[in-house]
Write a structure and sequence with these properties.
The chain is built from five helices and four strands; from the N terminus they run H-E-H-E-H-E-H-H-E. The protein is α+β, with helices and mostly antiparallel strands and 142 residues long.
Protein backbone atom coordinates (compact mmCIF):
# COMPACT_ATOMS: atom_id res chain seq x y z
CA UNK A 1 0.00 0.00 0.00
CA UNK A 2 1.59 3.21 -1.16
CA UNK A 3 -0.62 5.06 1.33
CA UNK A 4 1.83 4.21 4.08
CA UNK A 5 4.71 6.04 2.35
CA UNK A 6 5.48 9.76 2.44
CA UNK A 7 5.11 11.48 -0.95
CA UNK A 8 8.81 11.28 -1.88
CA UNK A 9 8.86 7.54 -1.17
CA UNK A 10 5.67 7.05 -3.22
CA UNK A 11 7.39 8.71 -6.18
CA UNK A 12 10.53 6.58 -5.78
CA UNK A 13 8.51 3.36 -5.54
CA UNK A 14 6.47 4.22 -8.64
CA UNK A 15 9.62 5.13 -10.59
CA UNK A 16 11.08 1.73 -9.70
CA UNK A 17 7.86 -0.11 -10.62
CA UNK A 18 7.88 1.71 -13.96
CA UNK A 19 11.55 0.88 -14.54
CA UNK A 20 11.14 -2.88 -14.01
CA UNK A 21 7.88 -3.32 -15.92
CA UNK A 22 8.00 -4.36 -19.54
CA UNK A 23 6.24 -2.03 -22.01
CA UNK A 24 2.54 -2.91 -21.76
CA UNK A 25 3.09 -4.29 -18.22
CA UNK A 26 0.50 -3.58 -15.55
CA UNK A 27 0.80 -2.49 -11.94
CA UNK A 28 -2.20 -3.22 -9.71
CA UNK A 29 -2.61 -1.12 -6.56
CA UNK A 30 -5.07 -0.74 -3.70
CA UNK A 31 -4.84 2.25 -1.37
CA UNK A 32 -6.72 4.60 0.94
CA UNK A 33 -8.13 7.65 -0.83
CA UNK A 34 -9.47 10.86 0.61
CA UNK A 35 -12.96 11.83 -0.49
CA UNK A 36 -11.85 15.48 -0.43
CA UNK A 37 -8.60 17.17 0.51
CA UNK A 38 -8.41 17.46 4.30
CA UNK A 39 -5.00 18.15 5.84
CA UNK A 40 -6.36 17.82 9.39
CA UNK A 41 -7.66 14.32 8.65
CA UNK A 42 -4.33 13.34 7.06
CA UNK A 43 -2.55 14.52 10.22
CA UNK A 44 -4.97 12.56 12.45
CA UNK A 45 -4.43 9.38 10.47
CA UNK A 46 -0.66 9.81 10.62
CA UNK A 47 -0.83 10.23 14.40
CA UNK A 48 -3.17 7.25 14.78
CA UNK A 49 -0.96 4.82 12.88
CA UNK A 50 2.28 6.38 14.16
CA UNK A 51 3.68 7.19 10.75
CA UNK A 52 4.33 10.02 8.33
CA UNK A 53 1.78 9.07 5.71
CA UNK A 54 -0.07 11.02 3.09
CA UNK A 55 -3.44 10.08 1.75
CA UNK A 56 -4.47 11.54 -1.56
CA UNK A 57 -7.69 12.22 -3.42
CA UNK A 58 -8.46 10.18 -6.53
CA UNK A 59 -7.27 13.02 -8.77
CA UNK A 60 -3.95 13.32 -6.90
CA UNK A 61 -3.39 9.53 -6.95
CA UNK A 62 -3.93 9.49 -10.72
CA UNK A 63 -1.62 12.49 -11.22
CA UNK A 64 1.13 10.77 -9.21
CA UNK A 65 1.02 7.68 -11.45
CA UNK A 66 0.80 9.73 -14.65
CA UNK A 67 3.87 11.76 -13.60
CA UNK A 68 5.84 8.51 -13.67
CA UNK A 69 4.59 7.72 -17.19
CA UNK A 70 1.74 5.31 -16.45
CA UNK A 71 -1.62 5.21 -18.19
CA UNK A 72 -4.06 4.91 -15.26
CA UNK A 73 -7.52 3.45 -14.81
CA UNK A 74 -8.91 3.69 -11.28
CA UNK A 75 -12.01 2.93 -9.28
CA UNK A 76 -13.02 4.31 -5.89
CA UNK A 77 -15.60 3.26 -3.33
CA UNK A 78 -16.32 3.38 0.39
CA UNK A 79 -13.53 2.00 2.56
CA UNK A 80 -14.47 -0.97 4.74
CA UNK A 81 -11.36 -0.95 6.93
CA UNK A 82 -12.34 -1.27 10.60
CA UNK A 83 -15.98 -1.90 9.64
CA UNK A 84 -17.08 -5.29 11.02
CA UNK A 85 -19.31 -6.18 8.04
CA UNK A 86 -16.69 -5.05 5.54
CA UNK A 87 -13.95 -6.96 7.34
CA UNK A 88 -16.03 -10.16 7.33
CA UNK A 89 -16.80 -9.66 3.63
CA UNK A 90 -13.13 -9.03 2.79
CA UNK A 91 -11.46 -11.51 5.16
CA UNK A 92 -14.14 -14.11 5.94
CA UNK A 93 -15.42 -14.86 9.44
CA UNK A 94 -12.25 -16.60 10.64
CA UNK A 95 -10.00 -13.90 9.19
CA UNK A 96 -12.11 -11.15 10.80
CA UNK A 97 -11.98 -12.92 14.16
CA UNK A 98 -8.19 -13.24 13.89
CA UNK A 99 -7.87 -9.50 13.16
CA UNK A 100 -10.08 -8.65 16.15
CA UNK A 101 -8.19 -11.05 18.41
CA UNK A 102 -4.85 -9.51 17.41
CA UNK A 103 -6.24 -5.99 17.70
CA UNK A 104 -7.49 -6.59 21.22
CA UNK A 105 -4.17 -7.92 22.55
CA UNK A 106 -2.92 -5.66 25.31
CA UNK A 107 -0.01 -4.29 23.27
CA UNK A 108 -2.19 -3.56 20.22
CA UNK A 109 -5.42 -2.41 21.90
CA UNK A 110 -4.78 1.37 22.18
CA UNK A 111 -3.82 1.72 18.51
CA UNK A 112 -6.59 -0.64 17.35
CA UNK A 113 -9.20 1.37 19.28
CA UNK A 114 -7.83 4.68 17.98
CA UNK A 115 -7.98 3.39 14.40
CA UNK A 116 -11.50 2.09 14.94
CA UNK A 117 -12.65 5.49 16.24
CA UNK A 118 -10.93 7.38 13.42
CA UNK A 119 -12.49 5.23 10.70
CA UNK A 120 -15.89 5.28 12.42
CA UNK A 121 -15.90 9.09 12.72
CA UNK A 122 -14.52 9.84 9.23
CA UNK A 123 -15.22 8.63 5.73
CA UNK A 124 -12.45 7.34 3.51
CA UNK A 125 -12.54 5.72 0.11
CA UNK A 126 -10.46 2.91 -1.26
CA UNK A 127 -8.87 3.37 -4.65
CA UNK A 128 -7.84 0.51 -6.90
CA UNK A 129 -5.70 1.22 -9.88
CA UNK A 130 -4.54 -0.51 -13.01
CA UNK A 131 -1.52 1.40 -14.23
CA UNK A 132 -0.02 0.41 -17.54
CA UNK A 133 3.49 1.12 -18.75
CA UNK A 134 2.99 2.46 -22.22
CA UNK A 135 4.58 0.82 -25.24
CA UNK A 136 7.79 2.59 -26.20
CA UNK A 137 6.23 4.17 -29.29
CA UNK A 138 3.03 5.24 -27.45
CA UNK A 139 4.58 7.65 -24.95
CA UNK A 140 1.62 9.98 -24.51
CA UNK A 141 0.89 10.41 -28.23
CA UNK A 142 -2.89 10.31 -27.81
Amino acid sequence: MLTMFPDVSKQKALAEYYRVLKPGGKLLTHDVSLIKEDLELVAKLGQTINGHVTQLTRRKWEELFKQQGFLVTSQVGPMSLMDPRGTIRDEGVLGALKIIKNGLKRENRPQFQAMYRLFKENSFNYITGVSTKLEENDQWNF
